[in-house]
């Protein structure tokens, strides 16, 4: 944005100076050039970083507005557990949420289920994907937005009525930029490229609609490298920290919420599906300590959410989320959500959710308890 402002100012000055020289007004032209130098030196688009304590009224009012219009996880039960102070939603702009799970547990699908209700609530979202084909991501997002199965979505564009529905959605998603979807299909993906694209898209949306994005999704940062880190010969774990730090700092600068994914370890995956005597037994909850990459993302993130999805959960149709780090609420709550993976739905208010205070293991009969206590808390005595 600063570069654009300077270039725009330079263009106007060049036009003025050229006109003055053509009119043989050399002295006036020189004055105009000197004026340009002073304006560039004085140009500051960034506000003073120092907090002004005397502006407490404005600061509290701004905070109340943010808490009244926070982004939603897509489940009112989860929202209330992660950020009890928020009047609506739980994901505050400028913060970061890290979603951790072993491979194949539904990280991407969960993040898309966070995006969809926020798009419907008119929160502009930007999604970066760094693995998988765009056609798979495209179909999955349509299924979640329309809450349809893949074959139902694919049948829409074969009918006149279906095309009309898709066009109406596409206008909101693309023309009005409520969902900017960027598959990074290139060799050697660099975080610097992501930052450059994200800033450019932000500037374009601000210029066209007067407002930038509220949510950025990164799926997922461990796929990214860094030119700066490579030139400095960072170790792998230091590069992972540098990449994640850039994305967290970008969220602060652009004032959007960052939702990113991280892989869990093989051991955490085995812990969810341990077999003993032919019977599945869930040994323990996965936690943020089971992250399979550098520890730095857990240090920088505002919230760490760990997916718990055993074979029992897949069979019974539910997924659980452990709030393992939070700057806005107590930790240790497990929110269990009814899911429907035939439509790629990990959680919705319609399907229902409940929560309980973690004891360190996945409680048995969670599927039955979810049905009995949907929308509220599961009593601790029923978890034994």
**Mean of the pLDDT scores?**
86
Q: Tell me the number of helical segments per DSSP (H or I, 4 or more residues long).
A: 15
Could you say which structural class the secondary elements and strand pairing correspond to? alpha/beta
Residue runs with pLDDT of under 50 for 5 or more positions: 274-282
Characterization of the model:
- This protein has 15 helices and eleven strands.
- The relative contact order is 0.13.
- The protein is α/β, with parallel strands linked by helices and 384 residues long.
- The protein has helices spanning 2-22, 26-42, 56-68, 76-82, 107-120, 134-146, 150-156, 160-175, 191-209, 227-231, 236-254, 266-272, 296-300, 311-316, 366-372; strands at residues 96-101, 125-129, 179-183, 215-219, 257-263, 274-276, 279-281, 303-308, 318-326, 333-338, 353-357.
- A hairpin with a 6-residue loop joins strand 9 (318-326) and strand 10 (333-338).
- The chain is 46% helix and 16% strand.
- The strands form two sheets. A nine-stranded mixed β-sheet has the order 3-2-4-5-1-8-9-10-11, sandwiched between helices. Strands 6-7 form a two-stranded antiparallel sheet.
């Amino acid at each position: 944005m600063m570069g654009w402002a300077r270039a725009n100012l330079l263009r106007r000055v060049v036009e003025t100076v050229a006109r003055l020289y053509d009119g043989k007004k050399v002295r006036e032209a020189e004055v105009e050039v000197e004026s340009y130098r002073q304006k560039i030196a004085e140009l500051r688009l960034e506000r003073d970083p120092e907090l002004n304590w005397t502006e407490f009224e404005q600061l509290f009012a701004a905070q109340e507005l943010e808490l009244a219009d926070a982004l939603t996880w897509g489940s009112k039960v989860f929202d209330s557990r992660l950020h009890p102070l928020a009047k609506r939603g739980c994901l505050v702009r400028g913060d970061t949420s890290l979603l951790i799970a072993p491979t194949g547990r539904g990280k991407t699908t969960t993040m898309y289920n966070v995006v969809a209700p926020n798009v419907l609530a008119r929160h502009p979202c930007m999604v970066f994907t760094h693995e998988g084909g765009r056609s798979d991501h495209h179909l999955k997002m349509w299924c979640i937005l329309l809450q349809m199965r893949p074959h139902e979505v694919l049948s829409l564009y074969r009918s006149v009525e279906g095309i009309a529905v898709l066009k109406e959605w596409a206008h909101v998603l693309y023309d009005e930029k409520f969902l900017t979807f960027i598959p990074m299909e290139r060799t050697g993906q660099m975080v610097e490229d992501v930052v450059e694209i994200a800033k450019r898209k932000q500037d374009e949306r601000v210029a066209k609609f007067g407002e930038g994005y509220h949510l950025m999704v990164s799926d997922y940062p461990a796929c990214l490298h860094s030119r700066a880190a490579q030139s400095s010969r960072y170790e792998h774990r230091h590069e992972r920290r540098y990449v994640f730090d850039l994305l967290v700092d970008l969220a602060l600068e652009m004032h959007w919420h960052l939702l990113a994914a991280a892989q869990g370890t093989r051991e955490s995956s085995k812990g969810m599906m341990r077999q003993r005597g032919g019977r599945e037994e869930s040994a323990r909850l996965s936690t943020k300590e089971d992250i399979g990459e550098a520890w730095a993302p857990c240090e920088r993130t505002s919230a760490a959410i760990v997916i718990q999805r055993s074979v029992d959960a897949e069979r019974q149709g539910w997924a659980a989320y452990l709030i393992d780090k939070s700057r806005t609420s107590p930790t240790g709550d497990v929110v269990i959500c009814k899911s429907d993976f035939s439509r790629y739905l990990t959680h919705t208010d319609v399907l229902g959710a409940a929560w309980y205070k973690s004891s360190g293991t996945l409680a048995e009969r969670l599927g039955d308890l979810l049905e009995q206590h949907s929308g509220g808390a599961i009593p601790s005595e029923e978890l034994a």
